Amino acid sequence: GCRPKELKYQYEEYIAKELENYTSESILLIMHVESSWMASDEGMLTDGQWKKLEVATLKNADNLSSSPKSHPLFADLNIKSPTGGKGPVAGLPFRHVRRTHSGKHIRVKKEGAGGKGTWGKLLDTDDDCFLDKNDPNYDSGEGAYDELVDSPVSDPLDDYKKAVVSIIEEYFTTGDVKVAASDLRELGSSEYHPYFTKRLVSMAMDRHDKEKEMASVLLSALYADVILPDQIRDGFIRLLRSVDDLAVDIPDAVNVLALFIARAIVDEILPPVFLSRSKKNLPESSKGFQVIVTAEKSYLSAPHHAELVERKWGGSTHTTVEETKKKISEILKEYVENGDTYEACRCIRELGVTFFHHEVVKRALVLAMESQAAESLILKLLNEAAEEGLISSSQMVKGFNRVAESLDDLALDIPSARKLFDSIVPKAISGGWLDDSFKVNSDQDGRESSQDDKLRQYKKDTVNIIQEYFLSDDIPELIRSLEDLATPEYNPVFLKKLITLALDKKNREKEMASVLLSSLHMELFSTEDFINGFIMLLESAEDTALDIMDASNELALFLARAVIDDVLAPLNLEEISTKLPPKSTGTETVRSARSLISARHAGERLLRSWGGGSGWIVEDAKDKILKLLEEYEMGGVTSEACQCIRDLGMPFFNHEVVKKALVMAMEKKNDGLLNLLEECFGEGLITMNQMTKGFGRVKDSLDDLSLDIPNAKEKFELYVGRAMDNGWILPEFAINDE
Predict the structure, then answer these.
(1) How far apart are the C-alpha atoms of 203 and 514, rounded to whole Å?
(2) How confident is the model at residue 531 (pLDDT cuts 50, 70, 90)?
(3) What pTM value is reported for the model?
(4) Same domain flag for 559 and 629
(5) DSSP letters spanning 539-553
(6) Which of 128, 384, 644, 653 is the most exposed place for a label (fewest CB within 10 A)?
(7) Domain harbouring 679, CATH code
(8) Is 678 in the same domain as 635?
(9) How confident is the model at residue 110 (pLDDT cuts 50, 70, 90)?
(10) CA–CA separation, 109 vs 100, rounded Å?
(11) C-alpha–C-alpha distance, residues 133 and 116, integer Å
């Protein structure tokens, strides 16, 4: 019958590799595979390869009958030994088949070597041949060899594949997560678990919504406890690579697999960064790439996407989750009333949701904060559950993290929530049932925890200020509001809140946020404020990505734009990167920002990065700059030109003024335009950084300018000399110029 495509691909690669130098082992392998496949017209050798194989057979005639070992590729291709297992289809011996020029296979005569174009009788053996121990030429080693050849080759992966299909089928019938997990654990061969992930999902894809839901539930249950996170990820990578084949039998394979991936991200068994990393490794024309795009755009970018994804297959898991949460609350309330730790642990164990124990931890901690009288009982329960191994350390940490992340919301109902939580953490760590590493995380998360009430009020005020700015686009009013708050120590917090709010809005608001950063840099914020604000943003990048799918890419754009707008210097990116954990999402974001900045025409592209939000502003500004320079060149007044530049209100874009002034001075042969630059620099209207950037942009385009202005390079050298003498540009510019 038909072989899987991946098997054929391996075989084709093998033929191509062995084509020039067939060995006795490769000849045996190819003869066996061709004889097994040709009955279904699936032989792979071309006419030219058949001829090469015939010549190789003649050269290796002495070795073919005594090759002592099966080729190792037999196991890789999941093919039994040539004489073991099933023979050629329908009992058709290889020697009685030949390939025609049309590609079909025909029987040839048994005797007479088969006629013209066949291989003769070199490899023919009588069907009824047997070993005769009385034969004077009998070799006792031949019998042992026959037994070795006749014995089937055992492939652990093949055995594993058969076993997991049985486990999955049984699970789809019974729905018993515990039994499936136990069977998979007992099966062993944990190195093959990526295949289990792939097989479970691919089998569910071709079934009803019930089985799809069951598959997602099982993956969540097995995550970390039975199947490692990397193995889950590798399984989905394999699915993405094979979706083209799956689509042959499952017409909506792209959509279904996209939903499985979205569900895995919602269930937190795949990190959101899986999408962007997979995109980089898949051809844009592949169905795997389509799967990622569909998951991003159709399922994970919608408001309330988590609830929508959970209910997509009929709401089975959603109902289960809600029921489980309700049961957990009931267990905890009953425990607080009777204080029976043993009974509470038994009830938690009977829930059978080890992957969801972080919810037990979260609800227990919230209950302890709501009722201080219950705190000692709750801590006792969590301690007991940890000692029994009922709640794993990873689930415990996850539960504490969830509470830490929701403290601001909890504080609305429990004013002293943060204080209570901070008092519980050291007790848990000293009791040995919360990992010491959480204290570090808690300290980092506590960056904003000093002066709780004041900070909480500041955050509330700044949200209102930012929302009003997005409606009014009034930068001066926003700056006045921040000055009235008189809390410059919280400037980094404002920056984090501004960009976080903009990330979840349209391009218009993102552009407004970048423009505001430039204005704040000129008026109110220090470079250190911006550095600390971006560090805070990047430290929480992974959490932000749970709510905003493209958060990492958008943050990279904000970082790169800040450099282009002179809010940050390129060296500041290095400083930010050193303060982030290595190999974290934040570090990856900084790396992406560097790539954006180093790209060709990075300035123009980044200024237009949010489409229409900045496009008309930039183009309009360029037109106004050109007109004011033309008026000035024709005899305008310097003070009026400076006022026009000031009225543009785009100090971050003043490098365009410098560039156009230098180019116009070359074209019009009017060096008087440099007097305007001198005046702007003297008034502080154009900064040294903007001046240097403008000179740099002209320098980068000198080759193009020389086509229209033959002496452009000579003129530019004179302008650079004047700028250096007057201190308009950075001293390093001359070094770069050389």
Answers:
(1) 48
(2) very high
(3) 0.34
(4) no
(5) HTHHHHHHHSTTHHH
(6) 128
(7) 1.25.40.180
(8) yes
(9) very low
(10) 15
(11) 37
Asked if residues 518 and 567 have their Cβ atoms less than 8 Å apart, the reply is yes
Closest CA to 568 of 603, 605, 526: 526
Amino acid at position 254, single letter: V
Q: Give the torsion sign (CA, 579, 584, 587, 593).
A: negative
pLDDT tens digits, 455-470: 778 888 888 899 888 8
Domain annotation covers residue 554:
yes
Q: Where are the alpha helices (DSSP H) in 72-192?
A: 73-76, 140-150, 156-174, 177-187
What does each C-alpha distance from 597 to 21, 424, 591, 592, 697 come to in angstroms? 51, 45, 10, 9, 14
326: containing domain: 321-431
Asked if residue 365 has pLDDT above 80, the reply is yes
| 60 in a structural domain | no
Q: What number of residues does the chain have? A: 738
Residue 75 in this model has a pLDDT that exceeds 70: no
Q: How confident is the model at residue 588 (pLDDT cuts 50, 70, 90)?
A: confident
Cα–Cα nearest to 196, from 217, 213, 219, 224: 219
At 599-621, the pLDDT tens digits run 777 777 777 777 544 444 566 77
- Give the separation between CA 39 and CA 36, rounded to whole angstroms: 7
Give the relative orientation of helices 673-683 and 638-648 as an angle to the nearest 10 degrees. 60
Domain-ending residue, one of 431, 463, 484: 431
Instruction: Identify the domain boundary among 398, 431, 464.
Output: 431
Q: How many domains does the chain have?
A: 4
Report the 10 Å Cβ neighbour count for 604.
13
